[in-house]
Each structure stands twice: as C-alpha cells, then as structure tokens.
Amino acid sequence: DTQTSGIGGGLGYFRKGVDYSEDPLQGLRLALAGRASEVIGVGATAKLVWGPGRAGHDNFKDVDVGAIANLGMIKAGVTATNLFGGSEVLEQDRELVAGTRVGYNEVLFMSLAAHSKFQSLSPFQYSAGAEYMTPYYVTLRAGYRTRPSVAQSWWGMGASFMSPRLSVHYATEFPNQDQTVTEHLIGATMVF
Predict the structure, then answer these.
(1) What is the C-alpha separation between 16 and 29, in angstroms, rounded?
(2) Which residues lie below 8 Å from residue 17, measured CB to CB, with a gap of 6+?
(3) Residues 6 or more apart in contact with residue 181 via CB below 8 angstroms
(4) Eight-state DSSP code of residue 86
(5) Pairing, β 138-147 against β 125-133
(6) What is the model's pLDDT at position 5?
(7) Cα separation of 17 and 159, whole Å?
(8) Counting C-beta atoms within 10 Å of the first and last residue's C-beta, which end of the chain has fewer, N or C?
(9) pTM value surpassing 0.85
(10) pLDDT band for position 1 (50/70/90)?
(11) Residues β-bridged to residue 66
(12) Do 97 and 81 contact (CB within 8 A), yes or no?
C-alpha cells in the first residue's frame, strides 16, 4: 500500500485459458513497489510462468519493471516486461508499454496505452478504457483493445468492490473474432 507508506508488495497466482489447449497457462508473481519521490513511483515483479504453447509446453522465470508519475489529475507510466527474454513457445516476448490516465474529481477516469515489442518501438496493440468510481466502494470499468496488424480486437468490462482493507475484482473480455475464448478474471487484494 504505497498510499499510506513508502513501500508496498504483493504475491499472486494466475490461470489463463488458451484456445489451443485444454491446459491453462499459469504463473506466480511477487511484486514490490515504492515511491522514489512525491510524484514518482517504481516497481518490479519477479514471475514464474508455465503451461502450454502452440509449439509445446514451456516454463520461464522473468522480471517486469515499471515507473509511474502522478501529476495530479494526469498519471503517466511505462512498463518493460520479460526483461530476460520471456518465452517464444508461450508467446511471452519482451514488451514496452506506455500509458496515461486522466481523472476528473477522483470519480471518472479515462486511460490510453500502447504496447510495442523491444525489437521495434512501433506499437502492435492499442487500448482505451474508462472507469467510474461510485461513492459506495464500487468501481465500474469498460475498455477496448485492438491489434490492427492481425485484425484482432476485444471489448472488456468489469466491476470492483474496493474498501480500505479488502478489494474484490471481476472482469471479462469479449473477443471480436470467431473461435476465441471469452476470458474471465477474478482477483482480490488485502491490505495488512
């Protein structure tokens, strides 16, 4: 919780269904974050990922790093994923993500992001989203992401219950392509 202290951390597990195998992609993550100054935050995540790829099973250990600038109603950040190379088999490449979030009155937020591979700074994926925070600990979200070079796109929506000590999140993503899987994400955050 970097809102009330200078350092925060998290531990997580994920399972993600893939359309080419009955086995899910799975992973463990350990994250640490802190404030470098009053407006700059930094973080790092160590992760272990395993499961099926289109060319067989694989596993890898890697690190993601990021930084965010809190400039009042505007926040801007950058993240570098899979610094040690990721896994070609699991389609987990080195990527660079840059984004911004604009907020109004701590109630309504709009976000934009672009993803690119390390080999080329030309983005391969764009995303946009909106978030509404009600005064009753409930947050509603909607978004859209697209990969123009391969003619793929997704719509998403979600909701969260966010209290000072416990947050529960649900999101779903609907692909605009036939023969692809609708994803459901469930998460929880506890502050000690």
Answers:
(1) 14
(2) 24, 25, 181, 183
(3) 17, 18, 19, 175
(4) -
(5) antiparallel
(6) 64
(7) 21
(8) C
(9) no
(10) very low
(11) 43, 79
(12) yes
